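User: Predict the complex.
Assistant: Input components as received:
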Amino acid sequence: MLPRFICLLLLWGSSCFGFKSFQQRIPNGDMVPHSCKPNFLWHGLGHENELGGGARNSFGLDFAAAGLKWTKELCEKDSDGDGRTNGQELGDPNCTWKENSTPETNQGLSHPGVCEPHDSDLCKPKNTWLNCELESFKCDAIKSPEVKNLTIRFPNTSVPNFETNYFCMTFDLPTDGDYHVIAMTPVIDNVNVMHHILLFGCDSDKQGEASGPTACEMGSVQCNTLFGAWTVGSAGQCLYHEAGIRIGQKGIKRVLMQVHWNNPEMRDDYSDSSGMTLHYTPKLRPNSAVMLMVGQWYLEIPPGRERHAESAVCSKEDTHRLLTGPIKIVRALNHMHYLGREESLEIIRNEKRIAYVTNETTYSYDRPKFVTISPPLEIQPGDEIKTTCVFKSKNKKKTTFSGRGTSDEMCLGFMVVFPAENLLSRTCATWRSLSLTKLYRDLNPYGCNITNFFNLSHPDTRPLLEKLENNCKPFSICLEECKEVVKEVRKHPCLSGDVGKYIVHRAAQMFNGDFPRFLSLLQSCDVEMLKDKQVQRLTNNNESSGSVSPRRHLELIVSFLCVTLILLI
Ligand SMILES: *[C@@H]1O[C@H](CO)[C@@H](O)[C@H](O)[C@H]1NC(C)=O
Ligand SMILES: *[C@@H]1O[C@H](CO)[C@@H](O)[C@H](O)[C@H]1NC(C)=O
Ligand SMILES: *[C@@H]1O[C@H](CO)[C@@H](O)[C@H](O)[C@H]1NC(C)=O
Ligand SMILES: *[C@@H]1O[C@H](CO)[C@@H](O)[C@H](O)[C@H]1NC(C)=O
Ligand SMILES: *[C@@H]1O[C@H](CO)[C@@H](O)[C@H](O)[C@H]1NC(C)=O
Ligand SMILES: *[C@@H]1O[C@H](CO)[C@@H](O)[C@H](O)[C@H]1NC(C)=O
Ligand SMILES: *[C@@H]1O[C@H](CO)[C@@H](O)[C@H](O)[C@H]1NC(C)=O
């Protein structure tokens, strides 16, 4: 154990932690669901306070008595007296789990220190300390007499029996005046499935969006101005007093409400009619506010990691592209999914960090912390916004990618900023090192016009396809004459570097048109070309061995020693 730890320390330096929380000494210790708040996790497993600290619950007392260790005796005990042993509640029914190993299951977990079902006749008397109340909402501004409200919500709709469901519906906003929305509060009907709500403003002159609840994608072409959000655990948002979100005659006239229902048990008997209440005022505030999204769209998180960091930078060039003047941030929200542990958003000016917008070291998907930035923080054109996300994939057996599902991951940051007129686009995100702002806003970014490239009948792309068609066969039959052609075609700016990876990634999601065929021709010699490369590397070996840098050399020795040690243990 110790040598392995030292190895990790040597290899990864500061990213390796000696610190072990109690959560790690208990099977599935960081995945235990809350007993009476659906979709919440119980973080301080041994405590009466779900966030930890203070009085211990019955499981916490037994855990302490066992020397803060997961013993067979503790595993076989039923600390909360609800008829399930601690091991059964925590996914270790046979009491075989050892620290750092993967528990037998992570399905059907329950709390070992709370008698469940929490409101049954048996449990009620034991759970007098249990707190089922959610955070309360404070916003004095909505008490002003001129403030009106509008509740938009789904009609009672049945929730499909899929794990992840996105449903959308559009609503008309009042157009009898010019208003600022100053607060939003959730109206949650079915707490068992409600995960988050996003509100997007729509181009008012376009039609065709869902007039009733319809299954939908993450975004919409006509409704793409994100301006409001609710996630599990939040009681609502109250806007900074100098700014509001413009609706009505001179603002957003229609909204698309997108609801994410999470139904991991895939039940088919759930229905929901959740929504949001918008609080709006005709007394306009001095500024209009909008939401700016930053982050990394490409994630690849290896399994079994205690810590895996990803980052993204909205660069100097990007903020010059996006901003016509300074903007101020008043609120911010980190967004990852279940593997997320830490996230920060930093503002960097002249290579120096001037402030953290968010800095969460105990991130939890269930407890979104919409932070209020007071006084508001200014971003100038030429500043950088850096997003850093840290994931823990200890319990995962497979690589996790970015995606919309709850078992996929995200690394995003949302910021409410004003004045709206200084911001030309609402997102500044990257895909690996690529600036999507640049890719979609510049005329010829990275020498590649992505719109034209995806159009295989466009004169820029047509010759590439023809060359491939004439020399290659699709679906991995590699022709000798194809190799050279592929090498040449891959030199195209749209197919090289990260742009090329992005295009291939996007193309792999396309199911119609000629592009999949283009891709299969392009990739038909991949394996053979890789083999050729290896043969070449072996023949070249004599020259490269003399030029290994001293640092690389040290790393190789350390890795070699580590592998040896690990094999010996
Ligand atoms: C756990 O015990 C059950 C029943 O006793 C058995 O079917 C199962 O194979 C055991 N699992 C392991 C991993 O030993
Ligand atoms: C909406 O406004 C009405 C009065 O116009 C008020 O009675 C009601 O409580 C408000 N609803 C919310 C959710 O604030
Ligand atoms: C909602 O609809 C479901 C059937 O789809 C029904 O069982 C349920 O009672 C309805 N709920 C309300 C509040 O009307
Ligand atoms: C970020 O949070 C951690 C833990 O709360 C704290 O130690 C650190 O100083 C914070 N950094 C900044 C710049 O606020
Ligand atoms: C690509 O080029 C076309 C003209 O050929 C232009 O209209 C379009 O805006 C360009 N697309 C991007 C993303 O720059
Ligand atoms: C593709 O390019 C051709 C030739 O430039 C053009 O006529 C056609 O409209 C383009 N198709 C799309 C969908 O943009
Ligand atoms: C080793 O490298 C030299 C040039 O650096 C080359 O001429 C020679 O062929 C190489 N030897 C082998 C066995 O590849």
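The longest helix spans residues 526-544.
Let me know if you want any component modeled separately.
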